[in-house]
Amino acid sequence: MAFPGYVAKRLVLFIVVIFGVVTITFFLSHVIPADPVGAIIGENAPQELVEKIEKQLGLDLPLHQQYLRYMKGIVHWDFGISLRTQKQVSADLKTYFPATLELIILAMLIAATCGIGIGILSAVKRNKLPDSISRILSLIGISMPAFWLGLLFIMILYYHLGIIPAGGRLSPGVLSPPTVTGLYTLDSLIAGEFGTFWDAFHHLLGPALVLGWIQTAYICRVTRSSMLEVLNEEYIRTARIKGLRERIVILRHAFRNAAIPVITMVGISFGYLLEGSVLTETVFGYPGLGRYSVNSFLSLDLNAVIGSVTLIAICYALSNLIADLFYGFLDPRIRY
Amino acid sequence: MEKQDRIESWERKHSSEISDVKEILHTVKKSPLAMVGLFIVLILIFVAIFAPYIAPHDPITMNLDNRLAPPSMSHLLGTDELGRDILSRIIHGAGVALKIMIIVLAIDLPLGILLGLVAGYFGGWVDEVIMRISDIFMAFPRLILAMAIGTALGPSLVNTMIAIAVTMWPTYARLARAETLSIKERTFIEAEKALGTSKTRILLSSILPLCSSTIIVRATLDMGNVIRIAAGMSFLGLGAQPPTPEWGLMVSTGRSFLISQWWVPTFPGFAILLAVFGFNLLGDGIRDISDPYLRRGG
Predict the structure, then answer these.
(1) Distance of CA B123 to the CA centre of its chain
(2) Nearest to B165 by CA among B229, B114, B211
(3) pTM above 0.95, yes or no
(4) pLDDT one-digit tens code per residue, A23-57
(5) Fewer CB in 10 Å around end: N or C, chain B?
(6) Cβ of A99 under 8 Å from any chain B Cβ?
(7) Distance between CA A110 and CA A69 in Å, rounded?
(8) A24, A143, A279 member nearest B235 (Cβ)
(9) Looking at CA atoms only, how far is residue A290 from chain B in angstroms?
(10) Nearest CA to CA, how far is B35 from chain A (Å)?
(11) Nearest to A147 among B137, B148, B251 (CB)
């Protein structure tokens, strides 16, 4: 299949998937819960209040009308008002999403640098001590519950060593930089406020290290196995016979050819990081999308739940789509 | 004498399975990491089964006179905010973790495999519908979907299991479908069709056994994942509810004592890590064994 055709097919599939995702979210939020309003305000609430909230959420309409109303809202990116924050959900998302984006980008940089580096080392020193150590460490990384690692980091890095701050995005008293992108680190650099940049970066460090460490493990494993496959190839032997330096053989000849699965893994890891951010942000008290969604779930804030789940699912599907397209672009064999 | 004969005939009948098991054990022995994994998993199972006999104290009974006691000889891992022995709660938690894992897989494997077999064998619109639904379920991050389902059904241990199961079936459906697609083209399936064997019989007795090994390998790799996601949900307050001795829940309630009474959240978290690590080591080992390419490569 030619590349444009592959892109078109994947895009159609993406739209079908997103449609399905929001429909499932509708079922989970409107159909399954027996008494959504009672769950929100308590079972013994006065009848007028129940009716008022039902009306506010549109729960008094027949199901198909609720669905239409719901779909219309999503298409216009209007989820209504959050019962918990008393603000438009879309405005909340606009505040919290950049915080998570910033966190994920830093975690991804940490994971890609460490994961690829350790993965190459591990493959080159196959079955020797560095390989065994990195394999065990990466298995521990994959097995690590993010929330527990976060707690250990708080205990050691915050309480005992004082390297990271207690939580939040900025220290009390530090004003947020003028909003351009919503990413505090980037905005403070644009405004030339280096003190604010350092403070924001400092606050990102703890959660980014937790997310980054776990993701390092995945990238390291993919790099290792992909490198091992390539290192057995004839052209690597040829390069060595030509007398090229080992460093050039490894980095230029081997890694370039092993990079496709690794880059795809880095792309997919965006989705994993998004998922991990739910637990990590909760532990660190970092005000991002993940913590927002957890708080919405816990307080049964229907509109906020729908908004955050929809946004997270779209980002997740989008990162998979980009990784797929990228893979298809680099490796024509998989455009089936 | 008769007993001996029976054993011999059983061995003859199952000779191929016996040699398979022997080969797997042999390879597991060669891989020290897989051995460690197997060891951890066996301990976990042992602890789960014999929890009431091993645990020094009751995991639920409170003892408010002995709150937040540090690790000592009478309470090896200390006590929690309600004076309960943490070691005993961790020991009983092993059973909870294994129960979640077994029930999730017991729902998922048959469901996923059945849908995958049907999609792969019949093809056409059936295949299209099943695969698109699985795409949609895979478009959610697992934890988020599980959280959403768990919340819709109401937070409890049973609902956690259902929620996790709903997020995992697509993996097995896809594997089973891919295997079915390649197996159904083989000549012996053509032969069975020509003989007029029913479709159900072909699917269940000819195709299913051939695709089971791939799926079992995948399931072993997922076991640790199930435990981790369940613990994560309980940690967030969307899974097991107090006073269940669930590890994630124990970390969650112990969180407030992190700085002054570090043992309360630390030990249950370590139990999660150890259990998931054990299953991952074993899963990794089994995958290496089942992949002849890797096996040759050593």
Answers:
(1) 30
(2) B229
(3) no
(4) 998 888 887 776 667 666 666 777 777 777 777 77
(5) N
(6) no
(7) 43
(8) A279
(9) 9
(10) 13
(11) B251
